[in-house]
Every structure is written in structure tokens, then in C-alpha cells.
Amino acid sequence: MTRHWPSGAFWRTVHDVPSPAGVAVSPLEQLQSVSPAGPEDRLDSWKAIAAYLGRGVRTVQRWEREEGLPVHRLAHEKRGSVYARRREVDAWWESRRRSLASDVSDSDSTEAVSSAAAVAPPTAQLERITWKAAATFWPALSSDGRLLAYVSDGGRDDELPQIWLQQIGGSPVCLTSGACERSHLAFSPDDTRLVFTGSDANGPNVYAMPTLGGEPRVLKRRAVAGRPSPDGKRLAYISLDDPAGIRIASTDDSPERTLAPNLFDVSFVLWSPDASHVLVQAHSDLADEPEFWIVPADGGEPSNTGILQRVRQRQCFPITLPASWLGNSLVFSVITIEGVRLARQVLDAVTLEPKGDAELITHGGEMDVFPTANAGRAAFVRTHADQNLWSIEVDRATGMPHGSLRRLTRGPGYIAYLSVSRDGRTLAYFLANRSGAGPVLRNLKTDVETAFAAAHDYGFPAISPSGELLAIGRRTAGPRALRPIYVGSIADDTIRKLGDDCGGRPRQWLDERFLLIERYGSRLNSIAILDTAEGAQHELLSSAEHSISNARVSPDGQWIAFDATARNVNRSLSSALTSGPGGRPAVFVARLRVGDVIPQADWIAVDRSASHPFWSGDGSLLYYLPTVPSSELRNMVRARRFDSRAGLPSGEPFTALALTEMIVPAAMVGTAPVATPDRLVFVLGDFRGDVWMMQVR
Question: Which of 28, 65, 444, 537 has the smallest number of CB atoms closer than 10 Å to its CB?
Fold first, then answer.
């Protein structure tokens, strides 16, 4: 039975711990009473001191020598063993800031101003909040900025991610257990409850639980991204039964309402501080790029902010993760050539229209994601930008990996869209780093790499079976999501355009003429075949109920594997392996029908709760990445034998490879592995990190 939105004083928790006088205390006071005190507030290395000040190690060492930065050395320890107390560093920084301000005001010389600018304090000082180097996601700050909740595996590879809570400066406490995947954390307005999305094989629901732990209660079934309003009277969420727009439920008996039904692919909901509006990331037309929209809570017409459009014009690209409201501004993540950084956009306090351009507020070189803000503080997850190509040898007879992983590339950058020639000799992939962006060709036998110079600043490469042609795409910076496709000749380094808008991106060549492309629509991706000689295309895989992606054609060209995720209400495949609407994707295989749409009845289920299928070199194995226990942590390759004559998987699924240190960043598009006759090639990275915090003016 569906549990309806509770009425009355729902947000008043029944799990408050009373004081001796019988007066309920706040969650912070409760946490202080049950959580052990944290370690001494020390920065225990040059690296920690430098990170706290937002500077390099050499800079802070110079400040200690020349400007009196208070750094202590440990007696009887090896040279260089140092520590600093945060309060002493803070006091030194404040006195130094005042001294600089006084020097500049007393001097009219250009030299004095330039000197002050060179050593001016950073826009925000970073403070590390967690110290686990764990797989961490979805942090949330309490209304006073003193409590932090987040999802994490606690720094242990064998543990499932759970919800943790800690006082800023204290020790974390694990609040949950079990295999439910949790996301979209938010505090209730009075900080007594945590609202989150919990997902299992049957799909996601929105839950609430006491801040200090307890039994979660379902608020909305078949829903995601629940967010309580600042006044505590409403809940905004995305319904899987009605995926267009957003739903608003009230704590009284008034009926639910749907806002902005003309917006599609809503990825999150965010209330304005006064609860008069909600902000979403969505688009109103299939041809438009996603954008931030302001939606009146009373049901008025949504307005396009244009924020993300201006960000794209500056060659920064937003990622589909929730933003956070901080005073009169928004904080969100963008991809830059220096890594994923936080940006802040100031809004007019009355009209909520953008004021000026967004500014970057964190430094480059790392991956700063999942921003959350309150009380003038912004917290986020920072992970090291380590995303590279790796390979492992496979036995040609069995297709089973053996030996150790071998690293193929080094250095920070974004790697995606792997494609390999039929002989397994040439690998094409997309690389973006500080040197630029574009397709790279790698000889897997000699490890020699060359950039495809004619396609600088192009992406989405797919190499033809012969290794002579390269299909590529180019992302446009305009408001319309145009998707032109080009074909390049590797021998003479030339390209030609197939169309200004082909509706999708290159995926894989069937032969030297026909190209498989992945087409994009409102929640429902499909697969089509493009004739590169004449420009015509036709649908190959499409569904009114399922979004289809990650298609791979078998080496003999007879079969196509793909993953599909159900999206619409009360619809599912007849197969019992379907996860259901809003659930995890499932892997399927079907006989390839050139010139015909493959009917849904001909889809053959391979495994549920899995995605990113890819074939072994001889087509006898179909590998894929399971989403259990977590879609965020893909550290395993599963496989099934495939009988190409019968067109059926044979035997039970089995584990082909378990990754211990590195993971496949499957949440990022274009990171599906590929296989050659003698190896598997992956995009892998160590995406463990910690939560950091800054004060933002």
C-alpha cells in the first residue's frame, strides 16, 4: 500500500532524546552527547597546512621562514615532521590580512598594489571535514552549517555505502545498514530529519528518518530527489509515474500539484530560501540543452535562467548533479580544462535573475562535486582527478582475464568513448586535459599514440573496422542541442560533415559505410543506423517505455547488445528480469536487423541490474558491469557465455574480473570498456575522496 504524505506536525520527530528536564534537545546536542570527541584540531603535515591555506607546500614553507607562519616541529622525530594548530593559523592569517590592507591603503604606488594582489588571500579557505579517503557522495549540511550527513563506504572496499552523520570537527557515526542504495540527502528545516532517495531492485522511493538514526519511513513511492521546503510545509520531488515536471505535496490535506509539466528530464529540485520558487535543471524541448529553470511554487510559468548557456560559451560544461542555494547565489559543478570545479552564480534577490557571469570558486586539478551549502558555508566532495586507460590480458580460448592490470596512460584528464578496430590493433578514444581536447589514436601493440589533428576539439570518436575511418561529433555551445557528425580519413587527416544535426552521437561502425549512433530524447534514448554515404538513417532500437544506451554489435555482426532502463508508469518488459520503472538498467541482446526496427518482443534478457555490455574478441562471451550493490561503484565485470547459432545466453552469469583499487566511472557518459582478442581495455580511476568545506562571502 502506498504511504501518503503525512499531515500535521510531520517534521516534529518522535525520536527526540529528552533532556533530564524533559525538554527535547537539538540533533547537534544529541550528536555531541553520543559522538566521541574528535582528535586535536591539528594540521599534521606540510601538505595539510598548505591545503588549509589553499596554497602550495613551497609557499607555506616560505611563509614560515619569512613571515612567521606558526608551524611547530615534533621533538625526536625525523626532519620535516611538523604540525600547526588551526586557531593559530587563523589568527596569523587575519593579522597578515589586516597588515596587507593597511600597507595598500597607506601607499599609492603600483608596486604596493601589485604586491598585495600577488599574495592576497584565496577567495575561500578550505577545511577538510572527513578523513577517510572513501567513496563519498551526496553530502548535506544542516541549517546552521554545523552538521554534515553524507553517503560513504567508510573507506573500506568491502563495505556498502551507508548514510553517515558527523558534527563539523567531530567523528562520524553510521546511521544505516543494508544494501539499499541511497542518494539525494537533505535535512528537514528543523534539522530533526534526513530526507533521502532509497533505491533497490524494485526502484526508488523517497524516505525520511530521524537525524540520529532510526527506521526510515516512506514519504513517496516511485519517486526521487525529495526536497522539503524551507518552511517545512511542502515536499518537492520527481515522480516516476508522471516524469514530466515536478510534484509538490503539502503537509495538510490539500491535493498534490504538478508544476512545470512542459519541462523534461528534471534532474533535481531545489527550493529558493523563501520557499516561493523552486529551481530545477531540465529542458523544455528535445532539441534544447539542459538549463536551470526557476519555477514559481504557486504554479506560474517557469523561466529559463540561461546560466548554463553562458557557462558553455566560456568552454565550461555543467554536469548533471544537484546545485545548492547559498544566500542569493547558486553553487554548482562545471567541467573545465583544469578539472571539475565549483562555480557560483549570483541571483537578484527579488527577481531571481542572474547577475553577471558565474565565477569559479575552487582551484583546478581536482574533481569537486556534490556541492551543498548553508549558513554561509559550502561543502563538497573532492576527489583526485585520476582517470586513465588500463588494460588486462585475456585468455583467447576462454575469454577470462589473467595477470595484473596494466596502466596505459598517466596524468589528469577526462577520457571517454573507447572504440577499437576489428584487428584489435588501434584504439580510438577522447581525451581532454590542459593541453586541449580531441580524439587520440593508440597503437595497442607498440603503445604509440597520435592525436587526430584534423579533429581537434571534436569528440565521440568511433573507429571503423578497418581502422581507416573515424566518425566524430562536435558539441555546440548554443541553446539548441545540435549534434553534427563527421567522418575523418586517418590516412590523409581530412574530415567531412554528414549533417548539421544528426540527432545523436557516433557509437560503432557496422562496416565501412554504416554507422551505429545513439540518439537522444526526453528520457528515452534510442539506437539508429546512419548511412555515411547518403546521410539517411533509420531507427534500429527504440521504445516508448525504455531508454536504450551503450549498444555494442558482436564481432560477427549478427547480434547487438545494449542496456535498457524502464522509464514510464505501469510499463515493463514481459521478461521477469526487468528492473521496472525508475529502477536499474538491464542488459539485453537481440538479432541485428539492418533496415528494420527490432521489436521489443525480440529482446533477450541477459542479466538484470547491469549495464555497459561489450563482447569478447570472438563473440563467445558478453561482458557487462553490474549495478549491484551500487550503481556508483562499478568494481566488477560479469559475463555470460553466448551461443551465436541459437542466439541465446548459455549458463549462469559469472564474475570475470573483480577490481580492488580502481573503479569504472560509469556515472560519466562514454566510459564503457572494450575488448580485443587478447585484452580488455577500461577507463578506470580512484575516485575516493573526502568532504571539504569553505566559507563563502
Answer: 65
